[in-house]
Amino acid sequence: MALTDYVTGYQHVGIPAKDMEETKKFYEALGFENIYETTNDAGLVRFFSFGDILIETYDKEGVAGVRGAIDHIALAVNDIEAVTKEAREQNFNIVEGPCSLPFWENGVKYICIEGPNKEIVEFLQKY
Question: What share of the chain is helix, strand, coil (3-state, %, to 5)?
Fold first, then answer.
């Protein structure tokens, strides 16, 4: 099976931010709504929404402020355990996870794999 057999759609794009307040002003000026805020080990995390577009911004040293600095793309899945098993069987380079976070109403579980260009593809299941 392919990992995309478990994908139900796009989840979000993760963009590192060097100034979270300027980032908030920018996306709100574009018409996005700040729909969720939380923190992680690195600092503040904000999600912005417009229609079915979801953007995650967060503090991350080293890549913020560099053109093209999109850290990851996240895909929604319906069975993170099956995705993890399949990724291992196909020898994808799992660089993070499976992990759980207390984001959204009931938390999320995810894994991240690294592509050939150092891109990160996150597979995420909301609970």
Answer: 20, 50, 30
Instruction: Return the residue matching tokens 């207390």.
Output: 102
The pTM for the full model equals: 0.77
Tokens, residue 67: 């053109």
**Residue burial 92-104, b: 16+ Cβ < 10 Å; e: rest:** beeeebbeeeebe
Rg (CA), the chain: 15
**Cis peptide bond upstream of 98, omega within 30:** yes
For each successive 10 residues of the chain (127 residues), what is the average pLDDT?
Answer: 91 89 90 92 89 89 70 92 95 94 90 83 92
pLDDT for 64: 64
- What was the pLDDT predicted at 30? 84
Q: At residue 28, what is the residue type?
A: E
How far apart CA 34 and CA 46 sit, in angstroms, is: 7
CA of residue 44 relative to chain centroid, distance: 14
Closest Cα partner for 63 from 2, 127, 119, 1?
A: 119
